[in-house]
Amino acid sequence: MTRQYCGQLGKQENCRVAVSLSLATEQASLPVAYQLYLPESWAQERHDEAGGVPEEIRFQTKPEIALDQIRGLVEEEVPRAPVLADAAYGNDTGFRDGLQQLKLEYAWACSLRLRSGAGLRSAPFQGSRRHGTSAQAAPAG
Q1: How many domains does the chain have?
Q2: What percentage of the chain exceeds 70 in pLDDT?
């Protein structure tokens, strides 16, 4: 089994990782999409019966999965709001380009500052980091 990075542990480990998408307001957060991330080596081993990976499943990076989830919400005409992500997504140019093509504002946490694009301003990071992945940030403004 291939080891992969686990944000909860802050290191590579023998684990499963998922990409999820939530809609949030000041009062609540609702998960609306969830997909298990399949490391590239696992996708290549699909013919191994022990792997059990269906033929129709193809490798996608985590940002590609997230962008597909966001595109799905746009197609369903869910009201648009800024996309907030961690640095791993925000540093991916394909992810940022996809958000710009969808005409979505976005911001991502990086180096204890909130970086932004598509109209949002930079603001000091005002949250906490727990287990290397979770971040609560005050709205830029």
Answers
A1: 1
A2: 70
> pTM for the whole thing?
0.70
Q: Count other Cβ atoms within 10 Å, centred on residue 119.
A: 10
- Give the N- to C-terminal CA distance of the chain in Å, as an integer: 45
Q: Give the per-residue pLDDT at 47.
A: 54
Q: What sign does the CA torsion over 129, 139, 97, 16 have?
A: positive
Domain range for 86 is 4-135
Question: Is 141 contained in some domain?
Answer: no
Nearest to 136 by CA among 92, 95, 86: 86
Find, among 90, 123, 88, 122, the residue nearest to 104 by Cα: 90
Distance in angstroms (rounded) separating the CA atoms of residues 116 and 84: 9
Is the CB of residue 2 less than 8 Å from the CB of residue 41? yes
Query: Does the structure show a pLDDT above 50 at 66?
Result: yes
DSSP helix, strand, coil percent of the chain (3-state; round to 5): 25, 30, 45
